[in-house]
Design goal:
The protein has about 300 residues and is of the alpha/beta class. Among the domains are: about 5-85, Orthogonal Bundle (Arc Repressor Mutant, subunit A), CATH 1.10.10; about 160-265, Periplasmic binding protein-like II (D-Maltodextrin-Binding Protein, domain 2), CATH 3.40.190. It has ten helices and 13 strands. A hairpin with a 4-residue loop joins strand 1 and strand 2. The two termini are about 50 Å apart. About 30% of the residues are buried.
Length: about 300
């Protein structure tokens, strides 16, 4: 039942003293206006108009109701006016759930400039290695990679990144490059402490067969950044996302292990929203900037 439409029909009819004239103003039929007013009277259990052949006039009760009805319409008009200004207003707090490594290496570098451009905006990070649906707890947007769980949420691919098995030059000097993927089982490796496909390292054999090496980590943790730090210190072989270690590879701080056998499949990175409809201006602004920044990254593609 559209209570607001009933009030609009009532006020128009009172102002024009006619259902027909009100109908022309509202672009409805006279019978539609009459039905809306009758529905309002039935709901209030009071007669609001005295009906004559071509005109209507307010009853005593109708006059009493008119002030409140006009207040409702004015309040709705004010709300619409405020709403019309929202799309150009980037303000408030945006709550982002993402991987710590992605936040540190792919968001933080451009975030100060973004916040300077939008001084009324604040950003709140909630970090974790895997996607967890926290939208009911106030999260606005999530950014995660890999296979996402089945959900009613909306996921949109914004990038893709290889995962690369690597180690520090110091480690490879001490242990040497392994001759085959299987040889990794005899080397200190670093892995994630939770159940994940990230702990199964895919390699392509000489005959083209793709095999997965289930590596048991010498050190295991939930955070890829700790694994990177350990690898840089020569603690073991690690497999991490290229978006995470691209600078380390480019500078030579980390070196690919078994490059001729590495799988070049890229893992998708998604931005996840609670709904496709009516994204807030702050979410739109943040995601637009994010996609602009990572679109040209060498690791993305």
């Amino acid at each position: 039942m559209d209570k607001y439409a009933e009030i609009v029909a009532f006020v128009a009819s009172a102002e024009h003293a006619s259902f027909s004239a009100a109908a022309r103003t509202l672009e409805l039929t006279p019978s539609a206006v009459s039905k809306l007013v009758t529905r309002l009277e039935n709901r209030l259990r009071v007669r609001l108009f005295t009906r004559q052949a071509r005109t209507v006039s307010l009853t005593e009760e109708g006059n009493a109701f008119m002030h409140s009805a006009r207040g409702v319409i004015e309040a709705m008009a004010e709300a619409d006016s405020v709403a019309e200004s929202l799309p150009t207003s980037v303000r408030g707090t945006i709550r982002v759930h993402t991987m710590f490594t992605f936040a540190k290496h792919q968001i933080l570098p451009w975030l100060p400039d973004f916040l300077a451009e939008h001084p009324d905006l604040t950003v709140e990070f909630h970090v974790g290695p895997q996607f967890v649906d926290m939208f009911d707890q106030g999260i606005d947007v999530a950014i995660h990679s890999g296979i996402l769980p089945d959900s009613s949420r909306v996921a949109r691919k914004i990038a893709s990144s290889r995962w690369i098995v690597c180690a520090s030059p110091d480690f490879l000097t001490r242990y040497g490059q392994p001759a085959t993927p299987e040889a990794l089982r005899n080397l200190p490796c670093l892995g994630f402490s939770f159940k994940s496909d990230w702990n199964v390292w895919p390699f392509q054999l000489d005959d083209g067969t793709l095999v997965g090496i289930d590596v048991r980590g010498k050190v295991n943790t939930t955070q890829g950044e700790l694994l990177r730090d350990l690898a840089l210190k020569g603690a073991g072989v690690v497999r991490l996302a290229e978006f995470h270690i691209a600078d380390d590879l480019a500078s030579g701080r980390l070196v690919e292990v078994l490059p001729e056998h590495q799988d070049h499949t890229k893992e998708p990175i998604y931005v996840v929203y609670p709904s496709r409809r009516n994204l807030s201006p702050r979410v739109r602004a943040f995601c637009t900037c994010l996609e602009t920044q990572i679109r040209t990254m060498p690791w993305n593609g």
